[in-house]
Amino acid sequence: MIHPPTLDLESTPGGKLLPRGEKMKIAEVSERYGLSSDTLRYYERIGLIPHVNRSDSGIRDYKELDIRRVQFIKCMRSAGLSVEILVEYMGLVQQGDGTIETRKEILKEQRDRLATRIQEMQTTLDLLDHKIQVYEKAILTTEKEIIQAEE
């Protein structure tokens, strides 16, 4: 079965982001996803978001698929993927089914990097928890000494 180049974005979790046929202006997308309008324009300029349709007055009208792209990009950037990797990936998406295996490999590689980062962060979190417990024990010991001295 041949899938359209939007396969990746249509297969992301979640329901409809917009009521059927509705569109969002750049300011609304910016507010919803916490990205500046300049960032959204930059993403469009470098090809992360393919050309967004414009109204007769030249204002960008983000459709459901455009918003899914923004959501995907925001999620991947939050996970630490570079803009360069995303540009490569989105370029492959635009090329269609012939690039599915390459896209999958990019995602697997990025997933492995993220899993390593999560492990490193968990180690740091464990260390912080330990240090906090040490301080809490020290505070309790000091409080007990103060109470005993007052008795």
Overall radius of gyration: 24 Å
Please provide the count of β strands: 0
Shape estimate: elongated
- Low-pLDDT segments, ≥5 res: 1-6
Q: Overall mean pLDDT score?
A: 88
* CATH structural class of one domain: Mainly Alpha
Topology-level CATH name of one domain: Multidrug-efflux Transporter Regulator, Chain: A, Domain 2
Please explain how this structure is put together.
The chain starts with 6 loop residues before the first helix and ends with a helix. Helix 5 packs antiparallel against helix 6. It has a domain of 93 residues: Multidrug-efflux Transporter Regulator, Chain: A, Domain 2 (Orthogonal Bundle). The longest helix has 51 residues. The chain has six helices and no strands. The protein is mainly alpha-helical and 151 residues long.
Short description:
This protein has helices spanning about 5-10, 25-35, 35-45, 65-80, 85-95, 100-150. It is mainly α.
What is the topology?
Blueprint: H1 7-10, H2 26-33, H3 37-45, H4 64-78, H5 83-95, H6 100-150
Helix pairs in contact: 5-6
Task: Output the keywords.
151 residues; 66% helix; elongated; disordered N terminus
